[in-house]
């Protein structure tokens, strides 16, 4: 009797369920209670990001209280920005030298103390010094917070944690003007700084109790590299921040800043290429995805912060919104960001191509800017809310895939250094974007005003005859003032529209670059079901 051939055994199917073993899916720095630590890290990040915008609305009150000139009071903002730019690049070296835990705790403590000193300042000199101290201590918080969120969570949860951390980074600049305006109107401008104290104290207590530290590495300090990069960043930040006040290159001051920037940038490039123990590791700049991550962070800073800088003054001066109304109109932008950050985190974990998400995010942001360029003085509240929400949706799609792609091929010991450079790129991008749109706004306002005034005729204006307006005396002067005020409003609206168009084209220009990046494999590893270890074989 012939034997019946047994069917060929099928090879084990690959499971679509993540197959992390306990050895694989563990955080780089385990902690007993990740949730409590996350709250402490988020609070530290929030107060630092809030201070980039919260003080802006209180500047007029500070000026009258401290008895300073407009040029002097502008250094309250400039000193903070410059200090952040100078000290942020050495975050990686300091974290290796003194330990990431110690540096993080010192940074938060220094930020809280300097915030108290800012609230107690009695003159503009003290305020500028204390704001510089606040920037110097706060410069380390964002890079250390981002690295800590990655290091203390399992690889399978890292995109979700980046989404959570990114919410604070995105929403902070939106909440800043609203909270700063409310505190200034209902309390005092000094509470813009005092509000950091209780939040910072809670964060400090949690970090001291729960934050682990990386292994300390006694790296030599690259003094020349720090001096070159510091001078370069100070000069470009001063040029961007002061340029509009000093009429750009009509002033010798701008030429000094430009010369310092170009010369130190050239020398720093040569230095970092030729020196082995430079301030920044060569591994970072040999990684194509990280380089593209810096470029996209720069572009993201331009779009995100430039829009935030434009909308509040536009809504308050042209549409007559109050501080609270302005905050309500801008808040949906943060809601859109919150939703798509969580969505993009899920998609990245499931293996969706992050480059497509980044391109889609920039495309949505560009489309929202095009829609904003169609606004007029008759645009209602609902349209402002709608397109702000849509822009937030686009920005939320970018953040998590960008960070996941940038960090995907970097070893853990480079994360703090990489995080400091990505945050620095976003900060410089914000300065570039704000300088561009404010400068273009002022120039377009003058051009549009001259153009509209030149086209004004008796039939359009409703005035009987410009040549005989003098016979109406004060009534005629009043009519001309009203007419000039309306021309200013229309010219300002045209200037804002031109800025929205400019940002739209800048955003659209970035989209093709996304597909030059290498697609990282961000999915958890899978193993054949037959090869998966049994539960009793896994170590406990």
Topology, pairings included?
Blueprint: H1 34-50, H2 59-66, H3 70-87, H4 91-98, H5 100-120, H6 124-138, H7 141-151, H8 158-186, H9 191-194, H10 196-210, H11 223-242, H12 252-274, H13 282-285, H14 288-317, H15 323-349, H16 354-372, H17 381-407, H18 415-454, H19 458-461, H20 474-510
Helix pairs in contact: 1-7, 1-8, 1-10, 3-6, 3-11, 4-5, 4-18, 5-6, 5-10, 7-8, 7-18, 8-14, 8-15, 8-17, 11-12, 14-15, 14-17, 14-18, 14-20, 15-17, 16-17, 16-20, 18-20
Structure commentary:
The chain has 3 domains: 26-220, Growth Hormone, Chain: A; 223-270; 280-523, MFS general substrate transporter like domains (Growth Hormone, Chain: A). It is mostly helical and 540 residues long. The chain contains 20 helices and no strands. Residues 1-20 and 523-540 have low confidence and may be disordered. It is 70% helix and 0% strand. The protein is globular, with a radius of gyration of 27 Å. The protein starts with 33 loop residues before the first helix and ends in a 30-residue tail after the last helix.
List keywords for this structure.
Growth Hormone, Chain: A, disordered C terminus, 3 domains, mainly alpha, globular, 540 residues, disordered N terminus, 70% helix
Q: Which word captures the global form?
A: globular
What's the CATH H-level homologous superfamily of the largest domain? MFS general substrate transporter like domains
CATH topology of the largest domain: Growth Hormone, Chain: A
Residues in helices, as a percent range = 55-70%
Provide the gyration radius in Å: 27 Å
CATH architecture of the largest domain, by name, is Up-down Bundle
Distance between the termini: 53 Å
Q: What is the subunit organization of this protein?
A: single chain
Runs with pLDDT <50, length 5+? 1-20, 523-540
CATH class membership of the largest domain: Mainly Alpha
Instruction: Please provide the count of β strands.
Output: 0
Fraction in beta strands = under 5%
Structural class: mainly alpha
């Amino acid at each position: 009797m012939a034997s019946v051939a047994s069917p060929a055994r099928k090879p084990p199917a690959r499971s679509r369920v993540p197959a992390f073993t306990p050895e694989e899916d563990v955080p780089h720095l385990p902690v007993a209670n990740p949730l409590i630590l996350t709250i402490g890290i988020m609070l530290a990040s929030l107060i630092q990001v809030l201070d980039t915008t919260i003080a802006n609305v209180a500047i007029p009150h500070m000026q009258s209280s401290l008895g300073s000139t407009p040029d002097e009071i502008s250094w309250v903002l400039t000193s903070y920005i410059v200090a952040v730019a100078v000290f942020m690049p050495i975050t990686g070296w300091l974290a290796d030298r003194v330990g990431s835990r110690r540096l993080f705790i010192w940074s938060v403590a220094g930020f809280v103390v300097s915030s108290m000193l800012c609230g107690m300042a009695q003159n503009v000199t003290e305020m500028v010094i204390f704001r510089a101290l606040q920037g110097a201590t706060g410069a380390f918080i964002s890079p250390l917070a981002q690295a800590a969120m990655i290091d203390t969570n399992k690889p399978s949860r890292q995109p979700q944690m980046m989404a959570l951390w990114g919410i604070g980074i995105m929403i902070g600049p939106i909440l800043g003007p609203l909270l700063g305006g409310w505190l200034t109107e209902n309390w005092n401008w000094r509470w813009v700084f005092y509000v950091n104290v209780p939040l910072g104290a809670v964060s400090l207590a949690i970090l001291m109790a729960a934050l682990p530290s990386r292994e300390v590495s006694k790296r030599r300090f690259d003094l020349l590299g720090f001096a070159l990069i510091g001078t370069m960043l100070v000069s470009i930040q001063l040029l961007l921040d002061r340029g509009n006040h000093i009429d750009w290159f009509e002033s010798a001051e701008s030429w000094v800043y430009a010369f310092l920037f170009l010369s130190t940038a050239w020398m720093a490039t040569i230095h970092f290429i030729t020196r082995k123990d430079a301030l920044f590791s060569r591994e970072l700049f040999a990684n194509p995805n990280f380089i593209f991550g810096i470029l996209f962070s720069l572009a993201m800073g331009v779009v995100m912060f430039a829009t935030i800088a434009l909308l509040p003054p536009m809504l308050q001066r042209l549409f007559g919104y109050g501080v609270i109304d302005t905050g309500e109109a801008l808040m949906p932008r943060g809601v859109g960001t919150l939703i798509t950050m969580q969505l993009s985190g899920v998609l990245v974990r499931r293996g969706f191509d992050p480059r497509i998400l980044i391109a889609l995010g920039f495309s949505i942001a560009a489309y929202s800017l095009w829609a904003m360029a169609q606004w007029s003085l008759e645009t209602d509240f609902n349209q402002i809310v709608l397109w702000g929400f849509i822009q937030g949706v686009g920005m939320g799609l970018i953040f998590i895939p960008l960070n996941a792609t940038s960090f995907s091929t970097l070893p853990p010991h480079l994360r703090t250094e990489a995080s400091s450079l990505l945050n620095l790129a976003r900060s410089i991008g914000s300065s570039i974007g704000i300088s561009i749109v404010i400068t273009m706004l002022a120039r377009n306002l003058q051009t549009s005003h001259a153009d509209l005034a030149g086209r004004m005729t008796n039939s359009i204006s409703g005035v009987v005859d410009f040549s005989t307006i003098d016979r109406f005396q004060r009534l005629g002067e009043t009519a001309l003032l009203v007419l000039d005020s309306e021309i200013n409003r229309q010219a300002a609206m045209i200037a804002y529209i031109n800025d929205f168009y400019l940002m739209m084209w800048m955003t659209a220009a970035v989209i093709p670059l996304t597909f030059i990046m290498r697609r990282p494999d961000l999915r958890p590893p899978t193993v054949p079901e037959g090869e998966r270890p049994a539960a009793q074989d896994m170590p406990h």
